[in-house]
Amino acid sequence: MEYILISKACRRGEASTPHFKLLCPISKVERLLFSLCNNSGHTRPNCLEGQVREMATMTAKQSRAASGFTIIEIMAAIVILMVAVLGTSAFRYTAALGARRADAQTTAARIGLLLTESWRGVSDPNIFDPTPLADGFSDSTLGIDSGSVSCEAPAGFTVLGTYRITADDFGYDAVLSWKDVSGGGLRALNVIVAWDQRGSKSEYHSYPDKSFELTTYVTN
Fold first, then answer.
1. Is residue 93 part of a domain?
2. Which member of 72, 114, 118, 171 lies 3.0 to 4.6 Å from 204 by CB, making a disulfide possible if both were Cys?
3. What is the per-residue burial (b if ≥16 Cβ within 10 Å, else e) of 31-69?
4. Residues 136 and 187 reside in one and the same domain
5. 176 and 110 in contact (C-beta within 8 Å)?
6. 76 lies in a domain?
7. Distance of CA 104 to CAs 99, 164, 168, 203, Å?
8. Are residues 214 and 113 in the same domain?
């Protein structure tokens, strides 16, 4: 243990002239503080008080940093993370749904074009049957079968046939109809392809909510 000679005024934190002197024990930290006071040129009581206050502030900050996060901070971080994850999931779901609907519409347009061009190419449009067209796509999942559908032909057109079409595990309804154009010697061939955007395999033939329509003309 080391000792240092201090005054009564120094012990009280006063800067006045000491009344008497005492020989008090001092630790290594206190010795370092006294040394800093002497080197800085300040009076020992004022300097010592400032150094002690500074060390107490640093100790409080270090204690707070070492204590970790509070429960409120952890809960706030969890909430922010959940919002970010949910937002990303919703965006991915919306993007995937939009891509699937766009793909279904593109397929419907291709089916309509296939039926229209095939119908226009036959010698007798009155006996056109599109069911054999699926045989030319052995490497795909295209299937064409005749059957009742929920969509209807345009007003004034005569229905040639109704068909259920499956392409890439997605169902479509097709209605083929025709109408003679008066005064022009032409016949209008109309093809409507409808489907359910939800893509349910058990209901896509019952509730179509989207359709694609093509009309072409041949000489009568």
1. no
2. 171
3. eebbeebeeeeeebbebbeebeeeeeeeeeeeeeeeeee
4. yes
5. no
6. no
7. 9, 15, 10, 15
8. yes
- Which of 16, 35, 66 terminates a domain? The answer is 66
pLDDT (tens digit per residue) in 35-91: 655 555 544 445 545 555 665 566 656 655 556 678 898 899 999 999 988 888 888
- Is pTM beyond 0.85 here? no
| Domain assignment present for 169 | yes
**pLDDT tens profile 148-198:** 887 889 999 999 999 999 887 788 999 999 999 887 788 999 999 998 887
Same domain, 32 and 115: no
Give a yes or no: residue 100 inside a domain: no
Q: Does one domain contain both 114 and 56? A: no
| 120 and 174 part of one domain | yes
Q: Which is higher by pLDDT, 69 or 118? A: 118
> Average pLDDT, whole number, for the chain?
75
Residues 144 and 134: their CA atoms lie apart, in Å, by: 6
CA dihedral sign of residues 24, 28, 30, 33: positive
- Phi, psi angle pair for 201, to nearest 5°: -65, -30
Q: How many domains is the chain built from?
A: 2
As given in the structure block, the two tokens for residue 123 are 């010698």
pLDDT tier for residue 206 given thresholds of 50, 70 and 90: low
- Domain span including residue 17: 2-66
User: What's the angle, vertex CA 102, arms to CA 101 and CA 104, rounded to 5?
Assistant: 65
